[in-house]
Amino acid sequence: MYYNPYPYFVYPNYYPAWVMANQPTTQLPSKHLAMPDPTNRGPFPSINTVKLKTSAKRIKVIMQQAQLLTDKIDESEQFAHDLMNAAQQSNKTEVEKLIASTGITVKFDTTYTPDGFRILFTDSGCCKLTLILGW
Q: How far is CA 73 from CA 77, 83, 96, in A?
């Protein structure tokens, strides 16, 4: 059971509609609605593509690094076996050593589950690439 801070009333006659309808009001509805109002967005900031272009350029390097790993797994049965075995035994240092032995130079972090493992490649805050391999 969970707590809902917004009450939901099942009975249709619970809200006293006649009271609300008979009250004179000059007040406009609040601008702070629960749903966004697409007619009142305001101006967007000017477009600067420098960071986007830099991220696109740097992600190419990360993708090449990920290609090194996937090529090694694809080409070497022994490497694939050793990597999977170390991951299933939760031997993180061995997994990282095996991944680094492929020639990967970018920072990465690994997590694994019984279904496979995930490698997150990062490049100093500009971009990230997640590689998910299943077994």
A: 7, 9, 14
Q: How far apart are CA 121 and CA 65, in angstroms?
A: 9
Residues 40, 52: Cα–Cα separation, whole Å: 27
For the ranges 12-21, 23-32, 43-52, 84-93, the maximum mean pLDDT occurs at 84-93
Model confidence pLDDT, tens digit, residues 50-61: 988 999 999 999
Residues 107, 134, 75, 81, Cα dihedral to 10°: 90
Length of the chain: 135
Residue 121 and residue 133: Cα distance in Å, rounded? Answer: 14
How far apart (Å, rounded) are the C-alpha atoms in residues 125 and 14? 53
Query: And the tokens for 98?
Result: 């095996």
